[in-house]
Specification:
The protein is built from 1 helix and 3 strands. Helices cover 21% and strands 35% of the residues.
């Protein structure tokens, strides 16, 4: 495949709705566990978004990755 053409995979993750929905540390742990479960991947980018709600903030992280070994 030419270097100017490629596809990237991604997933988005949030905390469950309810108490602790706005817990940033819990979301970071959840995302880290998911990345570890993917196996050998190269993470290209991670985004973080926060939406103000009537209760706690609704947090979302999106991870963009390639299914190939990490660069070391």
């Amino acid at each position: 495949m030419p270097s100017h053409e490629w596809t990237i995979n991604h997933f988005s993750q949030s905390n469950p709705v309810g108490p602790d929905q706005g817990d940033v540390a819990a979301l970071l742990r959840r995302v880290a566990d998911t990345v570890a479960a993917l196996g050998d991947v190269t993470v290209q980018d991670i985004t973080f978004a926060s939406e103000v709600t009537g209760g706690e903030d609704d947090l979302t992280m999106t991870v963009y990755y390639h299914p190939e070994p990490r660069r070391r």
